[in-house]
Amino acid sequence: MSWTDELAREVSGRVLTDEATREAVATDFGRIVVRRPQAVVCPASAEDVARVLKFAARHSLSVATRGGGHSQTGQSLSEHLVLDMASLCQLVRVEDGTVTVQAGIKWRTLVEHLAARRVSPPVLTNNLDVTVGGTLSMGGLGVASWRHGMQADTCLELEVVTGAGEIVRCSSGHNRDLFDAVRAGVGQFAVITEAVLKVRDHQPHFRSFYLLYDDLAALLADLKTLMTEGRFDALEAWCAPCPQGFKKLGGQRQAFAQWFYPLHATIETDAGPAPAAAEKLHGLQYYKHVHTEDGELPEFFTRLDPLFALWKRGGSWDYAHPWMECVLPWQTTALYVSQVLANLPPQALAGGHILLWPARGMAASAPLFMRPTGDFLMGFGILPAVPKPFLDEVLPRLHMASQAAILMGGKRYLSGWVDFDHAAWKAHYGERWADVVAAKNKFDPQGILNPGFVKYE
Ligand SMILES: Cc1cc2nc3c(=O)[nH]c(=O)nc-3n(C[C@H](O)[C@H](O)[C@H](O)COP(=O)(O)OP(=O)(O)OC[C@H]3O[C@@H](n4cnc5c(N)ncnc54)[C@H](O)[C@@H]3O)c2cc1C
Predict the structure, then answer these.
(1) pLDDT digits (tens, 9 = 90+) for 215-233
(2) Quick one: DSSP state of residue 60?
(3) Which atom of ligand 1 is least distant from the CA of 106?
(4) Which pTM value belongs to this model?
(5) Which domains does the chain have, with CATH numbers?
(6) What separation in Å is there between the alpha carbon of 396 and the centre of ligand 1?
């Protein structure tokens, strides 16, 4: 009997070995790393997950926990076993100020369930089709993170199955070391099976002011003011190129752009009249107030859906996505961003974008989410869609942008294209490296969970 048959007899969920199922989880949104598993398990319960992990440890098999597979360096891929968490996707209960969910639920499903009660999670990612387990494992950043921190910071309690196959509940008051390892822990220590999350009452409507800046320094100054005053609920900015043709650079002609910076500043509103521009925008140094958008709050949560639909229709969703996101110290943001943009050919962004998300360090608390010191921080992401023939050209450039961010005191967000060697991983975790190694030895002693991504030696 093969080991996959043996496993199928031990678990009550489905164990799938057919070609189509294995192929469907052989790569991720990055489309760079390919690992075809020998079996895909759709667990029926936390007990099932425990059985799978004990089985894997006994047979020295690697296990990748997969949410929606939106990460980009093979974080959710395995040559042996993939745990497809989509089978654990129930909303368990809603109580005053909290919701309990299974980890494979998508944030979209959760938001839709909660809409009628007019409550929502404090922080939502741009893409709502990612899973609760997937973003709690990375951090989960959104346009309200400057105020509420990451999704991992809004998590109150978890049920997890450690790499050793033990089912454990943990929180800040109970099994804290496990709770602190698993949140933003990149799936290295345990499989999250259930999460208790904060939810909050929200207003029914929103108003977004679409502002355009032609000066990065002015944008940064205004973002600091807006965060300090708390004038808006959500803040999101981009770097948008206006191509200027080609210029000579190092003996070659290279495309270049004049960069502009759209800022969307959003406030939730009640049934009364929405606040006027004169009131909300006074003193800001934008170049143009382009548009004011009003709507029901759930429309704001799904505002990026039309963009992702365009990426899918146009085919760029299926390109490679070596996304390079980082969190920068405020002091080095202007220099770093302007230098990166000066060297970025604008056509490299077709089917992608460059994000600038202001943040506050004091809003975040999950210890393994590495960020620069200081209160004012900037999230920056180069998010291209790259046709395969261009990949060899693009990866070294993104590697340089990543190195430069780190040299300037930044920390990488770990769901994207991360090609760290052992030394870079140690440097990423800095003084927490010893805690990371200790947690790995304690909770996943045989190193079966997502091996190869974090390089321990
Ligand atoms: C179009 C798009 C937009 C995005 N926008 C944002 C954004 O606004 N903010 C943001 O923060 N991120 C964003 N991301 C990144 C995305 O949120 C992360 O890649 C996230 O990890 C994906 O969740 P997933 O369910 O697809 O997880 P996967 O990619 O399947 O897994 C991610 C990691 O989590 C682990 N994991 C998954 N489930 C579990 C579990 N139950 N227990 C333990 N470990 C688990 C996996 O092993 C892997 O290491 C975006 C991605 C895309 C493609």
Answers:
(1) 999 999 999 999 999 999 9
(2) T
(3) 25
(4) 0.97
(5) 3-86 (3.30.43.10), 88-201 (3.30.465.10), 205-412 (3.40.462.10)
(6) 24
